[in-house]
Amino acid sequence: MDNSNKNSDIEIMPHPIETASANEVECCKAILTKANQLQYQLNKLSSKIDGLHLQNQSEFIDASLQNFTRDLDNQVASIKAIQNMQAEEFEQKLLEKDRMRLELLDALNKQEQSHLQETEKLKGQLEARDKRCLELEQQVETYKSNTEHNTSCPICFDQWNSSAAHRLVALGCGHLFGDNCIRNCLQQVSECPQCRARADQCEIRYIYGRPV
């Protein structure tokens, strides 16, 4: 029997597991320690074998190898059990991460829909405000046009004044004009330039108190 390698240590390295917990690491260390103890026992058995008679060596070796093989199988089974447990735990963590990812995506989609609804609502409000502003601008232009028309002579379209030659006057029909404009018109045609009613310069009346 060759015992040249009987003193060599059998080094059993634990399986690298990135996500191993503290208890799992301790278990792997215990397995490694047990394997080293088995190696030590194997070396002692080898030493004993050297002192036995030749006829007893074969039986002793077979029994020792069977015990060693049984212990080694138990250690391998323990390592596989740990690996299976770690694989299941890793799979559960992956499933949990997938669930969290789906929940996050759903929340983001709902938030996006909410933002789109808010955007559409604000867009509608802006359009309504722009429409209202346009209506107000049109009203202002209309009021401005009416004001300018009410404060302007319908003959020359210039604004009348309160004391000069173009002061505000009225005919008997009630229409308003600038003084010099209506006098010039009546010298040519004796009728109101607006309603064509009969009119004369003697009917001209000055208007007081009207804002100019």
From TrEMBL:
Keyword Zinc tagged: yes
Sections of the chain in a coiled coil: 105-146
Name the UniProt record assigns to this protein: RING-type domain-containing protein
GO annotation terms (biological process): interstrand cross-link repair; protein ubiquitination
Record-annotated RING-type domain positions: 153-196
Organism: Drosophila navojoa (Fruit fly)
UniProt keyword Zinc, yes or no: yes
PROSITE patterns documented for this protein: ZF_RING_2
Any one GO molecular function term: zinc ion binding
GO annotation, cellular component aspect: nucleus
Alphabetized UniProt keyword annotations: Coiled coil, Metal-binding, Zinc, Zinc-finger
